[in-house]
Design brief:
By secondary structure, the protein is an alpha/beta fold. The protein contains 18 helices and 13 strands. It has a 7-stranded parallel β-sheet with strand order 3-2-1-4-5-6-7, sandwiched between helices. It holds the Pfam family LpxB.
Length: 385
Amino acid sequence: MTPLRIGIIAGEASGDILGADLIRAIKTRYPNAEFEGVGGPLMIEQGCRSLCDMDRLSVMGIVEPLKRLPELLRLRRFLKSHFLSWQPAIVIGIDSPDFTLNIERYVRERGIKTLHYVSPSVWAWRQGRVKGIAKSVDHMLTLFPFEERFYQEHGVPVTCVGHPLADQIPLTDQRSAARATLDVEDGHPVLAILPGSRSGEVAQLIKPFLETAQWLRRAQPNIEFLIPAANAERKIQILQAIGAFSQDLPVRVVSGQSRTVMAASDVVLMASGTTSLEALLLQRPMVVAYRFGKWSYKLLSRLVKTPFFSLPNLLAQRALVPEVLQDEVRAEVMGPLLLEQLNNANHRESLINEFQGIHRQLAQAASERAADVVLACAGVSNVPD
């Protein structure tokens, strides 16, 4: 039987997770499927032949991509040439749109089917990009329903497959098991503090987050605080910030385990990002903060077209959880919001019911659904002859 060839490109760790699950789901239908492109250790473990180190694509900010531009352009040219020579049935770009969409458009114009997995934030800003996306992809796979609606409105073939996190996290409350894992005693409230995973993010948020912890400690003296550190560098950064803080706070910094820390908590104070979706799936009330540099905020505030920035509110399409932006990221604003989330039992019960509804909506066996769409787009049946 002729092997099914699939080109696939992931540019960062989150894409590697999605790509590995997608490869696994496709291989349950086509065990002899071949995957080539760019992937991380999880995709390689599932049988993907990675033509370069995925970390070479993982660049962020403004300066670093410019410094690496010649290398990235060379790699993009190489992948275009390779796919034209190898002739896969389909090429899949997973996130990393600045890199992958250009390749998708190139091979699509030359007769190879293309699919993009994980929508860029085109619904939030620079919405004109959807015209270029329409020329680059035969099909878009989104994680969230509100993204699917945006592409439908713009005539781009699209399927919302749900989010893999919703498949992984159970609907039952994980607090007791998480507290046992972290050796956290019952009988007192716990605030999880997540200032982000990147150095710049932590630098912007850790001081006002600690000041908010201090405010809460005065209002509720028996409260304790857990902070997960994304890696060793962030742990050093967070510990230095705590050391420079003059107040004696009962703060414990945990290496990794952000999901366990949130599950063990009663309420979460966090930087905006995918962790807010995890907090929702774990049924934890939260306050979500976002802080930019001064000039970045002035620019982005004019470009952004959505009234919300946190995933719970975007999914609910209303203000489900408090969002705190820019100059409002301070203790006297965030402290009372967290206290309300912590002590209002009726609000908490209502919020958990909302969270469970969204959880059920997102739990759609994402990787299996994505595999179905990939195979249909590639023009092959789900089960080989």
